Amino acid sequence: MQSSNKDTGKKRKNEEIEKKEITKKKAKISEEERSSSSVIIVNSEAAKTSIDNYQELTSDIKEFEKLNSPSQLATNVKLEYCNFLSQQVSRSIYNPRFIVFGSSLNGFSTRSSDLDITLLIEGEELYQDPLRKVYRRLRKITSKISRCQLIHAKVPIVMFEDLQFGFEVDISINNDSGIRNTFLLRTYSRLDTRVRPLVIVIKEWAKANNVCNSKSGLLSSYALNLMVLFFLQHNASPRVLPSLQRMFPGIFNSYYTIDDIQKVGLQEICNSWKSENTESVGELLIKFFEFYSMLDFREKLISIRTGSIHQRPVWDSARGYKGYINIEEPYTLDNAARSVYLLIRCKEIISEFKRKHKQLMSIGKPKNLDTVFSVTTY
């Protein structure tokens, strides 16, 4: 009996020792966890600081995009403008078919966007100088439009200003590639909510800093669109955008008819892509300037068709590749930056990207839209 009591007492003693050891281990683990937690907290604070660095900029970008978005009424007016043109031109051209394309419909429109329209013509009408017919007819409507001009360029247009609504209208003939590009860009604009705000802000910066003005030998608004999309395909990690022409070669190609394009449901395409990139639009803006401040514009070519950087094509003046800024047009493969035809303009544009990146990364500079839009002087 005494032996049994001794065993029981010994067992209890051992249990107490084990409990103490467990308590010590728990205390040690708890201390390690606290130590580890403090490290995590420090990292979290650092991450929070990093996020805060872009928080104001991101908020500014979203607000700017919202304030500069056209109203639904303004959008409807532009879309219905084709009816007005059809009524006016039908006396000169049988059953005219006008289609809106460009910035008013590509997902990147602003309150100041012009209205691009193309007239689809086939058969004998095509050989009867339809653009001149449009020009002659519209010149007679002086009560509704002003400054009507027939401009002979690579893509001839009739250009005028609508007196009632105040926007500029450009009319071309059979601009199929323009319609396809509009459909392509519109789809890209809907793949990720960061795309449109980023494009809108960068185009505003480009206008304020003498980078965007194709009539003055600078980049066109369209070329800037392609630059932003390419950055989001190629340099963002993980990538924000895919190459739609590679994902859906049966839809985004030069053989898809205009009627086919108008039947495509964008939502199904958009549902097929979700980016794993979690960077804010503010972070992406800073990285955009960093990327293009280092890119060798004169020797490299960027392509949203492939989502890759290529070696610049050999000198090809017909396609617009003259060794300056090289941006591949996704369907015709021409140079979308052909408006930059002077070396001095090319150098000015490259310098602006470098200056803006340096300014945004400099110590003590607030990373908000005031800094982005300000004209750089160093």
From TrEMBL:
Q: Where is this region: Disordered?
A: 1-35
Pfam families according to UniProt: MTPAP-like_central, PAP_assoc
Q: Which residues form the signal peptide?
A: none
The UniProt record lists the Poly(A) RNA polymerase mitochondrial-like central palm domain at 57-190
Domain PAP-associated stretches? 280-335
Q: Does the keyword Transferase apply?
A: yes
* Cofactor(s) it depends on: Mg(2+); Mn(2+)
Main location group: cytoplasm
User: Subcellular localization, per the record?
Assistant: Cytoplasm
* GO CC term (a single one): cytoplasm
Provide the GO MF annotations for this entry.
Answer: metal ion binding; nucleotidyltransferase activity
Task: Return the InterPro entries for the record.
Answer: MTPAP-like_central, NT_sf, PAP_assoc
Q: Which GO terms describe its biological process?
A: RNA 3'-end processing
Instruction: Name the protein family.
Output: Belongs to the DNA polymerase type-B-like family. GLD2 subfamily.
Q: What is this protein called?
A: Poly(A) RNA polymerase GLD2-like
